[in-house]
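INFO batch 0412 | record 1 of 1 | parsing
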Amino acid sequence: MDFLTLFLLYLCSVLAVAALLCLISGRQESFLTRSVTRASQVLALLIPSQLQRVAQRALHRLFHTRSCLFVVLHVALQAAVFGEYTWEVFVYCWELQFHLLLLLLPYLLLAGNLGCLLLCSRANPGTVTKSNAASLAKVYAYDGVLFQRGLVCPTCTLEKPARSKHCSVCRTCVHRFDHHCVWVNNCIGAGNAGLFLLYLLSLTATAGAVAAVSAALLVRVLLLSSALHGTYLDAQGQEQPVGIPLLVQHLFLTFPRIVFMLGFVILLTLVLGGYCSFSLYLALTNQTTNEWCKSRRFGGSQSHDRPLVYRNIYSKGIWRNLKEIFNPPTTLERKKKT
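INFO prediction complete | emitting tokens
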């Protein structure tokens, strides 16, 4: 097999595994849990106990304590991608007379994304404190299924407002808790949910813009190569037409860094696009990731041991739900309406 065939097989296998994991996680959550548990049990028999303790401490520090490591990794990946974009893609596109605005678009989106990243990471997500716990408890009604009135957080020793949850990483309760994001090193809650949505959209758009410009460059080079080298001499000295596989393989050999960067940003755009779609769905239906995950336990029908059925009581229509993401309600606003 040639290099192009092997690369395509590798890419297809990676996409197939990613799709399979998404399908399994969406329908059989317990299957993943059982698989991880069994894999950890097998590894526990093979890995020395001292190495296990070191790995557990490292994983705990990475995912259960606040750390800027993932933020640094985030910025480093963006710097690597834009370094390659600036060093090669921009230069080649400029020589081929691409429109300047098209070449500058990824930089403009990057600036917006870094601004959203900074604001989202530094914003107060909606920390529940002794001074505001009583007022936050009046913002949202308790649905009686996911959120019960009168529950006290055993860590914060505060009555939990509806739609709030204790974050073990930040060690505090967060109002309208969505999740803790390691990439912004902050919880996502009522105070920064809108910023996080803008951050996701701008990050997806940035990756898509880099992918579009890089792909346009390679297509232009492919067309020029096809026009300049319409035929080639085979081993017998006879002229043969240049096929697409040979031209694509020529791109791999001539622009290897651009091709692999393009593959990375395309895969990143697909992953981020899927997550953006999910986040937009949650925003338009006025749900959080925490509520969506918890509601899956109840399903859509009654059961013998759990007669309660979850119903989203917080949705107020698409436009009002979207407005609430960027302008969360307060106790004062609720009193004015009542």
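INFO post-check: The mean pLDDT is 81.
INFO record closed
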